[in-house]
């Protein structure tokens, strides 16, 4: 949910009704985050509520087949005599852009009506014929046809010696940024280099520009806009983008040549001020075919080339059609029979333990990963804060840790990230605000402290390690009751082979008293 205060206001009002026993608020992952019931009742009601919420969304979808009402849904209220359920999945508040752009608890994957899932699901014809990318098909920089000497030098300066397979394929398909014949739809695992795959042709195409104008727009779900004034390439979140289009002089879409929608499946669910129809409409508007000094395009003059990318690209025709792609080419580095692929260099493990033992198990695991930089994912802001405090309450026993969640402001989030990047914190405890796209070098392992609910979440969390061909490990802590669901989730993921990980029992026994004492000191403060 974008703004909890709206839900809380409504709850207050509902609570004053006669016969109301209590209330529970769950986040998008079905995790209770506020409750007036005891623990057992909370679990029971949370399960009911998430089940009903899924049914309501599915019902809205089936009533509005092909439309986007379920995604645009702001608030749905369902009443019976004793219960009232309020679903506010994407509540937005215009002024609160940072909060909107970094959300926790937004489900990665909405439950789909049964008819849509599985093999019989409709797929756009061009998605059935992908340009398959071979995993080993990188290209030495010296053999990249048409690569400008300045770009070659810049890539060398970054330490790059070759284009990764997805980058070589995108370069070929766009003729190094010179062809506007096709739009591109890129689906490749996390860390495979999708950013440079779209950035290189764009930069190559714009390299000869004479006048600075906004020529390329990259829309991302969660990164803050880092440009001011007149720019050639704008990288923006939907909230910031709309604010700049309305208020910043010199930022308009009339000279646009490239539109990139990164993390496309995630962005299609962000409806901030109808950003997508607004931008798509601007890109299809006839453009002045004036002699534009930057365009070295040999064909398709004036057409905005669109590139969409994700490791978990949606195949839902209704969603993809909203992008109005032109003769799209589907570049796929994924297995045909599974929806999502993991990096080949990723090794997966699970640790089954009682829920109450998770803090102890996490600590022993962190000790076992002594030299590694580790990201620990939890299911909620509260859980992130609690675990962060617990680790900080065990100096010398737990590695130095920082916490990252959207409860913190942008400055605190940046400080946590920079402590992790610099090595001052070896562990970053994070909520799902960090799941997508974040590229931190040298992360050796990811721990799912709370098991992910959706396959997409698993793929993006795990993808913070094993990037750019490096090896990495993902560990998932599972309560016995989570195991079945987790196995089901893995069926949607290619090459997922999860081994059991055995922790040293001596360490578990010896650390238990310290962890119990730290928990006792931290939890009351956290609550
Ligand atoms: N040609 C290359 N040679 C060496 N390193 C590269 C190359 N291209 C990209 N990288 C590095 O690989 C890492 C992953 O790239 P990138 O962030 O683009 O992945 P991605 O596919 O967008 O992942 P995600 O889906 O998680 O966002 C980055 O650290 C980047 O600097």
From TrEMBL:
Residues 175-331 form the Helicase ATP-binding domain. Its EC number is 3.6.4.13. It is an enzyme of class 3 (hydrolase). It comes from the Eukaryota. Signal peptide: none annotated. Residues 364-509 form the Helicase C-terminal domain. One of its GO terms (molecular function) is ATP binding. Transmembrane segments: none annotated. It holds the Pfam family DEAD. It catalyses: ATP + H2O = ADP + phosphate + H(+). Keywords: ATP-binding, Helicase, Hydrolase, Nucleotide-binding, RNA-binding. PROSITE patterns: HELICASE_ATP_BIND_1 (PS51192), HELICASE_CTER (PS51194). RNA helicase. Belongs to the DEAD box helicase family. Belongs to the GAMAD family. The Q motif is unique to and characteristic of the DEAD box family of RNA helicases and controls ATP binding and hydrolysis. This is ATP-dependent RNA helicase. It comes from Elliptochloris bilobata.
């Amino acid at each position: 949910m974008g703004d909890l205060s709206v839900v809380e206001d409504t709850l207050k009002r509902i609570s004053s009704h006669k016969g109301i026993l209590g209330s529970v608020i769950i986040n998008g992952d079905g995790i209770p985050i506020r409750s007036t019931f005891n623990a057992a009742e909370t679990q029971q009601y949370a399960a009911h509520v998430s089940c009903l919420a899924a049914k309501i969304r599915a019902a809205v979808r089936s009533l509005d087949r092909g439309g986007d009402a379920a995604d645009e849904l702001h608030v749905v209220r369902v009443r019976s005599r004793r219960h009232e359920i309020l679903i506010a999945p994407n509540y937005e508040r215009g002024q609160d852009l940072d909060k909107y752009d970094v959300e926790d608890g937004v489900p990665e994957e909405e439950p789909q009506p049964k008819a849509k899932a599985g093999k019989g699901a409709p797929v756009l014809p061009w998605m059935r014929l992908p340009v398959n990318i071979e995993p080993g098909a990188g290209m030495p920089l010296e053999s990249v046809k048409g690569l400008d000497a300045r770009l070659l030098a810049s890539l060398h300066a970054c330490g790059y010696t070759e284009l990764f397979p997805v980058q070589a394929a995108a370069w070929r398909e766009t003729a190094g940024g010179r062809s506007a014949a096709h739009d591109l739809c890129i689906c490749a695992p996390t860390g495979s280099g999708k950013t440079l795959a779209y950035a290189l042709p764009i930069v190559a195409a714009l390299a000869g520009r004479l006048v600075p104008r906004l020529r390329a727009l990259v829309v991302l779900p969660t990164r803050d806009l880092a440009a001011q004034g007149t720019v050639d390439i704008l990288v923006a979140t939907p909230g910031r983008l709309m604010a700049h289009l309305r208020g910043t002089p010199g930022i308009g879409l009339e000279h646009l040549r490239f539109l990139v929608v990164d993390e496309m499946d995630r962005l299609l669910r962000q409806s901030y001020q109808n950003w997508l129809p607004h931008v798509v409409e601007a890109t299809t508007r006839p453009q002045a075919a004036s002699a534009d000094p930057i365009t070295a395009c040999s064909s398709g003059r004036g057409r905005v080339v669109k590139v969409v990318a994700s490791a978990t690209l949606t195949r839902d025709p209704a969603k993809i059609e909203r992008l109005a792609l032109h003769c799209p080419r589907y570049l796929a580095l994924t297995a045909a029979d599974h929806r999502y692929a993991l990096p080949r260099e990723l090794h997966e493990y699970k640790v089954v333990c009682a829920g109450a033992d998770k803090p102890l198990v996490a600590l022993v695991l962190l000790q076992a990963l002594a030299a590694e930089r580790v990201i620990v994912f939890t299911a909620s802001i509260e859980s992130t804060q609690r675990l962060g405090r617990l680790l900080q309450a065990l100096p010398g026993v737990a590695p130095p840790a920082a916490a990252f969640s959207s409860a913190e402001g942008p400055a605190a989030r940046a400080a946590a990230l920079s402590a992790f990047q610099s090595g001052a914190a070896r562990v970053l405890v994070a909520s799902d605000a960090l799941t997508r796209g974040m590229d931190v070098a040298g992360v050796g392992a990811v721990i799912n402290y709370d098991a992910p609910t959706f396959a997409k979440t698993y793929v993006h969390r795990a993808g913070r390690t094993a990037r750019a061909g490096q090896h990495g490990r993902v560990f998932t802590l599972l309560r016995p009751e989570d195991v079945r669901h987790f196995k089901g989730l893995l069926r949607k993921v290619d090459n997922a082979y999860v081994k059991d990980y055995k922790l040293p029992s001596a360490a578990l026994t010896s650390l238990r008293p310290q962890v119990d004492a730290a928990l006792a000191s931290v939890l009351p403060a956290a609550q």
